[in-house]
Specification:
By secondary structure, the protein is of the alpha/beta class. Helices cover about 45% and strands about 15% of the residues. It contains 24 helices and 17 strands. The structure holds one DNA strand of 29 nucleotides.
Length: about 575
DNA sequence: GCCGTTTTCGGCCCGACTGTTTTCAGTCG
């Protein structure tokens, strides 16, 4: 059982306990444990085998023994007991907007509803309106929310889809006369790999006017709520957008609040309490009612005696303790990246010529580019035979003569074959400046086998980098079943760089794995895996992952000047 | 259920918005 699966069970138990009316703190404890397990850098199985479950934040005596039972027997008596009390399908009803634990319980107890389908039928039959606290309006709203739920394919959308939407809306919000600032907040600003909705914050003294202008934007299909400081809408494509409006003199606290994460905010508010304040999106307040306003976010942290914490770190993963101790990491920035180590051309499955890609990389500010087309066995991607690879090498030299200002290097994205061999013999790999080894096929092999393939590639002295190490696609394909920690350790020992693939549907390594890689001292490369010129712009997403992983520029090889990079590669036995 | 340079017990963030209500419960973030 992996971390995600264990976390899922604790989340479900949390939902069931909440429906049952258990203490909210007990419910929150289950959810905190679930989130912690999900974002823990080590495989839960391994942590369990080492008897270190209590090292996971939020896991105490009771939850430890539940995890133990679950991993030992594959079952959990307490979970089974809950399922006997509360229909498990009832938790699905919680996904409908405006339906929380209280209503879910009532629907089940009084109307026998145990599923979203059942809820829909009851609403259509007009059976919800007569329940206490309900009426025709709430009944109609629930029907609308069920429709919206069906239209939404998944609960969370890719960051790479949400950002362009957010940028478009922000641009239009800034055009509104009374708006003095507009920013993306929430998980977007924290660069989480997926977002549940798009959160936006604007500064203005005319909140009502701003709000009514906003809800009239043409792409808005439905207004879910509209108040003075907060409005919530749904776009035609089902994406939900939330807008907060606060006066400029309170923008700092509002920005801090709306950026989250919720767990981070709770920690800050606890700190505020310790210092005799109450902290909210509006400002700091003393018991005597006296307020401290913050127009800047830095002042919020300063008031709490902390340095400003970058949004990407605000997940309650130790950032507050480190900030307190003055040990916040110096995070890598987009402008630190000077090279791209993974790019394709029309020699394999790219769409553009080598020269086009070189010029595009130069135009996007890069100083070096490694051409890494696919190797021979990847037929669907028009992988290069050894002859074509050598031919390409000459073309790289030619293009280098005509394109100045960017250093072109010879590389390849070499298949790690199903039996663990690499797709080119060592003497061919030795001719290249950089070898990126990647898995594209046989990702569903058993754990030992697929782990051994990666370990084997790392052990090969010609391999400099592992491309998209786990093979996952965000939200659509699970990672290969890997024993990730030994892989990270081997890469750290051998000085092989691990890729953070910046393509929004990969983001592989993930933030959690990259954080573990960072802690183990692995070298990291932030690459776009560009197949088209515009893909070089995607590196901002890889930077987001790296920052969430607490990575600084020194550990990221493509922040190094080309001479430094070449020295590293030569030291590894590359051609150079 | 978890957790502690004030605590091993008694705390556990704070507010907006909606709908159904005459003061609030439920939901959401």
């Amino acid at each position: 059982m992996n971390n995600q699966q264990v976390a899922e069970i604790f989340d479900r138990m949390g939902d069931m306990l909440e429906i049952k009316g258990e203490s909210i703190y007990r419910v929150l404890a289950y959810r905190k444990a679930a989130e912690s397990i999900r974002s823990f850098g080590l495989a839960i199985q391994q942590v369990w085998e080492n008897g270190q479950l209590r090292q996971i934040p939020g896991v105490g005596e009771a939850i430890e023994s539940k995890i133990d039972e679950l991993l030992k027997t594959g079952k959990l008596g307490y979970y089974e007991k809950l399922k006997a009390e509360i229909p498990e399908s009832l938790v699905e009803v919680l996904r409908v907007g405006d339906v929380g634990p209280k209503k879910a319980l009532r629907f089940w107890r009084e109307l026998g509803i145990t599923s979203v389908e059942g809820l829909e039928a009851a609403a259509r039959a007009g059976r919800l309106r007569d329940l206490p606290g309900m009426g025709t309006r709430s009944e109609a709203k629930i029907l609308e929310n069920i429709e919206a739920l069906k239209k939404r394919q998944t609960d969370r959308i890719l960051l790479g889809i949400a950002w362009p939407v957010a940028r478009g809306l922000l641009e239009r919000l800034r055009e509104i006369t009374w708006v003095t600032a507009a920013e993306a907040v929430g998980s977007l600003r924290r660069w989480r790999e997926t977002v549940g909705d798009v959160d936006l914050l604007v500064a203005s003294h005319k909140p009502r006017d701003v709000m009514s202008a906003f809800v009239r934007f043409p792409e808005i299909a439905r207004v879910l709520g509209q108040g003075d400081t907060k409005g919530s809408v749904e776009l035609a494509n089902g994406l939900r957008v939330q807008l907060w409006v606060h006066p400029p003199e309170r923008l700092g606290t509002a920005l801090q609040y709306a950026t989250g994460s919720q767990a981070h905010n709770v920690r800050l508010r606890e700190l505020a309490q310790d210092q005799g304040f109450s902290l909210s999106e509006h400002g700091f307040k003393r018991a005597d009612g006296k307020e401290i306003l913050c127009s800047e976010e830095t002042k919020v942290y300063d008031t709490l005696g902390l340095p400003w914490i970058p949004p990407e770190l605000r997940e309650d993963r130790g950032e507050i303790q480190e900030a307190r101790a003055g040990r916040l990491p110096n995070l890598v920035r987009l402008e630190d990246l000077v090279g791209e180590l993974h790019a394709h051309t029309n020699w394999s499955d790219g769409r553009h010529t080598l020269e086009d890609m070189a010029r595009a990389a130069l135009a996007s500010g890069l100083r070096y580019l490694v051409i890494t087309d696919h190797s021979r066995s990847l037929g669907v991607a028009n992988g290069l035979s050894i002859e074509r690879l050598r031919e390409q090498s000459k073309v790289i030299d030619e293009v280098q003569r005509s394109v100045k200002g960017i250093r072109l290097l010879r590389g390849a994205e070499v298949e790690i074959l199903a039996d663990g061999r690499l797709d080119y013999p060592d003497e061919v790999l030795a001719e290249l400046d950089l070898v990126c080894a990647s898995l594209h096929t046989s990702l569903r092999q058993p754990r030992e086998k697929v782990t051994a393939r990666l370990l084997g590639a790392i052990e090969n002295p010609h391999v400099d980098m592992i491309g998209h190490p786990t093979g996952r696609l965000v939200g659509s394909r699970d990672a290969a079943d890997l024993d990730i920690d030994p892989i990270l350790q081997a890469a750290a020992e051998r000085g092989v760089a691990l890729e953070v693939n910046a393509s929004p549907d990969r983001l592989d390594l993930s933030d959690v794995h990259a954080r573990r890689a960072r802690d183990l001292g692995c070298l990291i490369a932030i690459n776009t895996d560009a197949h088209r010129p515009e893909h070089f712009d995607l590196r901002i997403y890889g930077v987001g992952v790296a920052r969430r992983a607490w990575l600084g520029p020194d550990q990221v090889v493509n922040t190094w000047p080309v001479d430094h990079l070449l020295a590293w590669l030569r030291g590894r036995g590359g051609g150079g």
